[in-house]
Amino acid sequence: MAIATLAGAGRSPIIPGTAGTLATLPLAVAAGLWLPVWGYAVATLAVAGIGIWAADVAAPRLGAKDPGAVVVDEAAGLLVTLLGVPITWVSVAGAFFLFRIMDIIKPAPARRAESLPGGWGIMADDLIAGVYASLALRAGLYVWARIG
Questions:
Q1: 5, 15, 38, 124 - which has most CB atoms within 10 Å?
Q2: Helix H segments across 35-88?
Q3: What pLDDT sits at residue 15?
Q4: What's the pLDDT at 58?
Q5: How do residues 12-21 score in pLDDT, each as one tens digit?
Q6: How far from 147 is each of 43, 134, 141, 142, CA to CA, in Å?
Q7: Rounded distance between C-alpha atoms, residue 133 and residue 34, angstroms
Q8: How far apart are CA 30 and CA 124, in angstroms?
Q9: DSSP per residue over 10-29, as a string?
Q10: 1 burial class (0-12, 13-18, 19+ CB within 10 angstroms)?
Q11: pTM value?
Q12: Using the 8-state DSSP alphabet, how is residue 98 labeled?
């Protein structure tokens, strides 16, 4: 339960997904600054893998298919968003906002991925949202560099 809720961040009474994403920011920034890209990718895969297991265990205990308190999927999605992106205040702020937007709107096939069983369905939509957010972030950083 501690992993699934990111040590209780997901138990926030308001916007638990955003609370989980905020709780992940220090980890994502530290990993992005200290790990080589391949190490960051391995860490992201580890969070996703452990998150699938934790979400699979937590969902029945919390009595829902995708309980709001389970926010380890937000951690994995944010890590995907920042994978290979230089860590700056602009990239981190952009990653946070773009990931939250993509997680909320769930562009195809993210919404369909929610129908996967157990922890897979909980995690897959956020990983897909992370890919979309990463692409948007990279495009935004490219434009930012050209006008800045």
A1: 5
A2: 37-62, 72-82
A3: 95
A4: 97
A5: 999 999 999 9
A6: 33, 20, 10, 9
A7: 22
A8: 24
A9: GG-SS-HHHHHHHHHHHHHH
A10: middle
A11: 0.96
A12: H
